[in-house]
Specification:
With about 190 residues, the chain is mainly alpha-helical. It has 8 helices and 2 strands. It has one domain.
């Protein structure tokens, strides 16, 4: 067998392998892993921006600026829009891609079990429902208004900072589901 014959045989075997269900499943799983990576990267970007503001009082006070100069503050809030939109969009992409892969790969009891876990873990989770609808709000209506707050911790002589979404403008959108509207109450009565 010549080297060219061996090469043709390898190409033929690879093409045959690519036609198997195992190959198809492995490619779907790899694709899903890429989606998870995008989601994680977007979360880390958003979390690092907000985390620094919340954990570094000097940075937060410097960013907030003064009564007469809010330029740094306005720039900081504007710079939160891309990572927030990317996070919400990638969260929804991960949900949809996971669902597609599970339907393509799982059957019978395994698919039923997966769907039950999703229902409990995500469909019943107010934060999850909120993020999914926040993505729709941001893509189809407008970007939310972000705000910040400071307060002195009672037990410490330290400033605590927080970033929030203004609730009233969010509620003007008429496409929130009942569950997502309910999550506004839950999310505003728990720590952010």
């Amino acid at each position: 067998m010549t080297s060219e014959d061996r090469w043709r045989e390898l190409v033929r075997l690879r093409e045959e392998l690519e036609q198997t269900r195992g190959w198809s499943v492995s490619q779907r799983v790899l694709s899903l892993e890429r989606t998870r990576f995008v989601f994680r990267r977007n979360w880390e970007d958003l979390h690092s921006r907000i985390g620094r503001f919340k954990s570094d009082p000097e940075y937060a006070l410097h960013t907030f600026g003064t009564v007469t100069d809010r330029s740094r503050w306005n720039e900081f809030l504007r710079d939160l829009d891309p990572p927030l939109l990317n996070y919400a969009a990638s969260a929804r992409a991960l949900v949809d891609h996971s669902r597609n892969v599970s339907k393509a790969v799982l059957t019978g009891n395994a698919l039923d079990t997966y769907q039950e876990v999703v229902k409990v873990r995500f469909d019943g989770n107010p934060r999850s429902r909120f993020v999914v609808k926040l993505r729709d709000y941001m893509l189809h209506y407008e970007l939310p208004i972000t705000a910040g707050s400071f307060h002195w911790a009672d037990s410490e002589a330290a400033v605590k900072a927080a970033i929030t979404l203004s609730k009233a403008p969010l509620l003007t959108w008429d496409s929130w589901t009942r569950e997502a509207r309910r999550s506004f109450w839950i999310l505003t009565t728990t720590s952010t």
